[in-house]
Amino acid sequence: MVAGADWWRGAVLYQVYPRSFADSNGDGIGDLPGIERHLDHIAGLGVDALWICPFYASPGRDFGYDVSDHLAVDPQFGTLEDFDRLLAAAHARGLKVLVDLVGGHTSDQHPWFRRSRTGTAAPEADWYVWADPSPDGTPPNNWLSVFGGSAWTWEPRRRQYYLHHFLSTQPSLNLHNPAALDALLAVGEFWLKRGVDGFRLDAVDFLAHDPALRPNPPRPFAGPTPAKLFGLQSHQHDMLHPGIDHVLSRIRALTDRYPGTTTLGEVSSQDGAFDRVRRYSSGDRHLHMAYTLRPLRGGFDHGIASALLAEADGRADAEGWPCWSFSNHDVERAVTRWNPAGRDVAPDPRFARLLVALLLSMRGSLCLYQGEELGLPEAELTLEQIRDPFGLTYWPEFRGRDGSRTPMPWQAEAPEAGFTTGTPWLPVPASHRALAVDRQQGDAGSLLGTWRQALAFRRAHPALVRGGQQRLDLPAPLLGLVRDYAGQRIVALFNLSDTPQRCALSAATTLGPDFGGTIDDGYAQLPAYGALFATLETADAKIRKTEEV
């Protein structure tokens, strides 16, 4: 495991969506004791830290991201004592623990909002974003909610509108207000004092808005009207406000008082996302790490993958520290989303292994989403099975996020694949049973075995953990990069096609693990969807594409 106060630099995080990980009491919903029971699986992968999505008290309108009490565990997930035991058990296995800090909004059931909505005399009156109606009674401006419709909801008790970037039951906090920001920091301190090792910060780009409430300008758009009208605006004023920097600096100052803790920010897919990743994670007044959803929203080909690797390029000491992931709880699973054969075809196991090699090679920290180590494809759910409000609104063009949130399959032959003894909140797909943990557990050639070998390989090579990166200029379908650190230079080559390829590779020696690539008489031989890691023995080693095999 990575040690030291900057353990996060190059660390691998494992993301757990508690509701779907493991259910300990048979109610069909995963919980904290369920996570604790499977910590050996997580630690056995060779990751450094565990990121746990929200388990706080919540009405569950957005499944935990609508917090009604930041300092309490929702009863469906357990108790504070359960969390303390989970934290201690994780630490005993050498795992750091990050929890979600949802700072941009709360539930409308939160005591802060209940008091704020009563009128301007309440101490929390300005802890949320309130505005008078336009003269004709309509909302104060044209801002739109990500989840559809206006970003403003009328509150008759206060005679004002309140802002919500997502559901109307998720009112936006006004972090321009010092008292509101102090209250959020007090929440963070509560969990730091309990011993957590840091925070994943939800939706960083929404943490500050234009106080003047200026309307957003239209965004040039060609084609038919999209289902999600949010894309028709240039979001210059409802989000991405410079005040975000002050919020981040206060959060960083808080964690700096607890040495060894870290912060990971989620950056939206709005234009300039990679620039914001670098800015939000640069210097000592911002976050330690950041990632963006931008590469997780679309397709995957040589041009896109090459551009992604280019964003990771940089010296070992370059400003900013990215965190890379290919899947998470908000997007379609990568082996389906990026499947070269199409999303309706079963993923090629070789392609799944290629994604393992590609992810572990990139400069920065990494995040692995539960079930990714098993190669789980996106679950195909019917409208009747969908629970996600986002999916219910935009069905069938957008099926929501539930397809990536179905329960973890632990035992192929057990009822509900060992996730629960009851009825799971989302169904367990039949296609996931064959990929269950117990089916792959003892098989070194399985994808689970590949992840374990690959993460051990990465830990053993500092160039892959903390080194600089330089992308190689190779034509399709090849990709390549060189990682260097303290005199160690490792080249990684990838074949994105289903046709064997080769390229000249002089003065290099193959390294494990086995992704199919070999070196023969000065040539790297890459099978279909194959990859190769090699150490470069001289500074002038030649790497160039020659011809298709």
Structure write-up:
The chain is α/β, with parallel strands linked by helices. It has 15 helices and 22 strands. The chain has an 8-stranded parallel beta sheet with strand order 11-10-9-5-2-1-13-12, covered by helices on one side. A hairpin with a 4-residue loop joins strand 7 and strand 8. Helix 5 packs parallel to helix 6 and helix 10 runs parallel beside helix 14. The longest helix has 17 residues. It starts with 11 loop residues before the first strand and ends with a strand. The mean pLDDT is 95.
In short:
This protein is of the alpha/beta class.
Assign an overall shape: globular
Note the gap between the termini: 40 Å
Radius of gyration: 24 Å
Name the helicity range: 10-25%
Number of strands: 22
Q: Please identify the structural class as seen in this structure.
A: alpha/beta
Oligomer: single chain
Uncertain runs are: none
- Overall pLDDT score: 95
- The fraction of residues in strands falls at 15-25%
What about the largest sheet? Answer: 8 strands, parallel
Strand arrangement in the largest pleated sheet: 11-10-9-5-2-1-13-12
Number of helices: 15
